[in-house]
Amino acid sequence: MNISSKILLSLMLLMFSISGKTQTDTSLRSALFPQTKYRPKVAVFAPVYMDSLFDGNNYKLGNNNFPKIVLPGLDFYNGMMIAVDSLNAENKTLDVLFYDTKNSKEPISKIVAKPEFQDVSLIIASFNSRAEMQVLADSALAKRVPLISATYPNDGGMVNNPYFALVNPTLKTHLEALFKYLQRQYPTEPIYLFKRKGASENVIANGISEMNKKTIGSPLKIKIIELVDTFGAKEVLIKLDSVKKNIIVCGSLNELFGMNLVKAVTSNLNFKATIIGMPTWDAIKDIGEDAEIIYSTPYNYPRTTKQALYIEKKYRSKLNGRPSDMVYKGFESLYRFGNLLIIYGADLIEHLSNKDFKLFNEFDFQPVKSYKEKIVPDYFENKKLYFIRKVDTQIKSIY
User: Is domain 171-297 given the CATH code 3.40.50.2300 in the classification?
Assistant: First the structure.
């Protein structure tokens, strides 16, 4: 069976689990668990786009046609199911429900009103748009159960919701960590921040500038340089020092701009540079083949650990492929927070940073408030970030 056939089989099994009547409504019940008095129920949401893929029970797009937009959500689901297998093996008692956030027939507003959803104890979501967050967050607040936003780096404008927890930090948090990193590593060296014209680019440049003005220590020597989208190597190299090693910050989330900046810097081997990118660089696999690249991320998945090799083995046996980071994120989210739910129950929100079930990443959830004196947090946010260093596309060290 080739990988396309296995992915299709995985999709069909998922569709059957969602629509089939062999289980309670849309529940992916971990049926192998023995019955116990307390069986916490976990609801998991991810974008799988089943409506676009199936017409009834028939796959619409052909065996070898799988839209890339489907794969992140499907991999998150597959990682979650590997976690279910692990919990089963450990005799952990959880009921797990899975919902497709892109199901037009059952929008989130309809799902949260279903009888099966009323007694959930934990919600885990892999959002891919801000519009999906508020209805689910409102439901979590009303039920007083944690909603873990596992992958999406946006707070959705959340206000007064101490049950909403953001694993992937906002850009503001990344910038704060970046500024501290620059202070620690390059306190006296010239730093070149290249940006393009744009609103998010202004947020980045202005944010760094404001922190530099307010810092208690010596301010950094940062020079902000704006480039047009059609810039070439000459416009970049003319700003750099051909004698000393250059410290360069990419001040844009735009992936094409970042890739072009790296190409420009590395086009002349006489110029030595360390290029510090944005968190979006974590998803760009081919960036910086001839460069030293550094970027921040809340996710660190070394593939040689015992846990990682277990996940890879399980995934390969199921889909005959190499698991993406979304598989690891799905596994880590359900296994870690599911275990904590079993232990702490209704008090889970107070123990999200607990390290007892750490698999790969440390989490440091801190309350976010619009002003210091505010009593109720707007939400909780993971403040723990790793700085990844890549040389010749190989990870050399983590700060």
Answer: yes
